[in-house]
Amino acid sequence: MNSPIYQTIADFIGNTPVVEVHDSLIPKGKKLLAKLEYYNPSFSVKDRTALGLVQAAMCSGRLAKGGILIESTSGNLGKSLALLGAVYGFRVIVVIDAKTHPSVIRWCEAYGAQMEMVHETDENGGYQKTRVARVKKLLEQFPEAVWPNQYDNQANPKFHYRTTGEEVAALNADAVVGSVSTGGHLCGISCKVKEKKQGTTVIACDVEGSAVFGGVFHSYLVNGAGLSWRSKNTDLNVLDKICISSDQEAFSACRLLAKDSGLLIGGSGGLVVCGALAWLNQSSSQTAVAIIPDTGTNYLEQIYNDEWLGQKGITLLSRAKLNECLKTKRILDIEEVRRGNTAHSPIETELASISE
Ligand SMILES: Cc1ncc(COP(=O)(O)O)c(C=O)c1O
């Protein structure tokens, strides 16, 4: 069979592989499928999000070859937008902050993107507000530029509805488990899955410290998941259950999966695996599909480095201990989140307005 020839690297985005995980943590007779989003060209689910945002801007005529795109991001979306800028010939300005990992900066620069660094923290000690303020300043300087705004732009979940959602709905699974930051990929997937296969349970996973589903924000180590507010693209109407795990649980799951299954996943993937195992243990669901957002190669010096874990005060859990945690882990019904009946206090409204 001839291998397909793609016209550009962007045509290679999507259609990611699914691998069945065989692990003693999976209850007998049940199945865990891992959809590996790190098989996208920039090694994360954000290639799909970026393509959705860029296609929407290009179709509306707001972005074309020679145009300018500006976005605030300190992680995977910047890499993905920078890649698309190289493919379609538009200029990409990525607003980052002093905490952005140097490898992200080099990665984006390799694709020809311009990096704008903010150094000042906002009144909450974070950088999100100052990054958005810098985007707005840049838009004054480049009024013709496009700001995709991944948090509130419906093109984000809509693209996942049309693409990732179709791929997931084609799997024979009665539960879909994913992580949430903007909410774009999981909510888009969920809309499609619920349309095609009513009765599928969708479980959103987040990290302790994030305020997406309530509580007061505090810092955490897992990259990519969580936010200090709930963005418009997190639609509670399409989520059924919420599962919150700690950095320690997520990283322990990552390390076990790498060692025993050869799957090298990022920390948000660890959260998803914890959520899927907890759900398979505590429900009658037979098959869960876990959406794994990115690769562990992004975190070789962190999650996969014992010295770094030690410096951060993280002790990895044994298989038996992790299993015990997952069997008793609290899985919240979405109604409890709506009522603000989470383990934390209600979402901070002041932070909630950042994305406005
Ligand atoms: C590694 C990783 N995991 C999870 C997410 C969450 O995805 P979403 O913003 O679609 O909710 C992101 C988003 O940046 C990510 O980079």
Short structural summary:
The chain contains 13 helices and 10 strands.
Mean pLDDT metric: 93
Strand order within the widest sheet? 1-2-9-6-7-8-10
- Biggest beta sheet attributes: 7 strands, mixed
The hetero molecules present are:
pyridoxal-5'-phosphate
Order of helices and strands: EEHEHEHEHHHEHEEHHEHHEHH
**Strand percentage:** 5-15%
Say how many strands there are: 10
Coarse morphology: globular
SS-based class: alpha/beta
Distance between the termini: 51 Å
What share of the residues lie within helices? 25-40%
Number of helices: 13
Low-confidence stretches: 344-356
Describe this protein's structure.
The protein has helices at residues 46-59, 76-88, 102-110, 128-141, 155-162, 164-169, 184-196, 247-261, 267-282, 306-311, 319-328, 334-338, 349-352, and strands spanning 18-21, 31-36, 68-72, 91-97, 114-118, 175-179, 201-207, 241-245, 287-292, 331-333. By secondary structure, the protein is α/β, with parallel strands linked by helices. It has a seven-stranded mixed β-sheet. Strands 3-4-5 form a three-stranded parallel β-sheet, with helices on both faces. The longest helix is centred in the C-terminal third of the chain and has 16 residues, at 267-282. The protein is globular, with a radius of gyration of 19 Å. It starts with 17 loop residues before the first strand and ends with a helix. The relative contact order is 0.14. The site of pyridoxal-5'-phosphate (PLP) has 21 residues, from helix 1, helix 2 and helix 7.
